[in-house]
């Protein structure tokens, strides 16, 4: 959560009262000092300072990414000066109404000049504090984003260099070699391709969808060699979106998630489809849960969601009914890292 911009009420009141005292000192040291005039002068300055403090604070816009580059000279400054002139006129008029013996013209001019100086000083001070606040918010957001991105990369690394996946792949290769399967050499090539893509893409935030599908081709080949007809993966994607972008290994993680939580067998084939619906990639599978489900931390889908939020400010959608589990991934048409 973002920390709200805040200035201590104690600071506001102490600074306002101090200004009132400072502006009253010349009258206090004057030989012709009149207590009522000193109190009135103190009251006008203190009251004006308090009102202009709160006006400037409440006129600051709420934190957004677009306000970080706000200029010092802005419409807000001129509105504040206009409001300050009106406020000082009203307070001076009240003073004149109470102390009608004062010469209103010169007093009014002195108060208005004083009000402009106080207004400018407070505005510049608040602007400096607000810019510091914005910079702190940006730094905190970057830290949170980097932390989420590192966590996602760590989870991705754990899943990609998954000992179980490697163990199963090597077992499959062993069986193919022992049975003199003619596809053994192709299996080794695909396995090498898959891990080469893995190691080469882990540090990337985004990858062209066409390259992601090349990785998927090797991955699906390895899975088909293991599950044969027990796993049916279909793709229906137009080539016009091959140039869009996707966080690396997103599709592979989703397919792995399907296999992890569902029965995959010749008797009960698992059907996984990858397609497009408007501005979304759709990954769906039929639901046939395992009798003994593997433990799940829920980090896989959450990390994918966090990466989409970080890279495109869009969330993934998770839909489920009694028969189908579906993930909708926003298509990223521009490389946001640029």
From TrEMBL:
The keyword Membrane applies. One of its GO terms (molecular function) is phosphorelay sensor kinase activity. It holds the Pfam family His_kinase. The chain crosses the membrane at residues 6-26, 38-57, 77-99, 111-130. Keywords: Kinase, Membrane, Transferase, Transmembrane, Transmembrane helix. InterPro entries: Bact_2-comp_sensor_kinase, Sig_transdc_His_kin_internal. One of its GO terms (cellular component) is membrane. It comes from the Bacteria. Residues 152-229 form the Signal transduction histidine kinase internal region domain. The keyword Cell inner membrane does not apply. This is Histidine kinase.
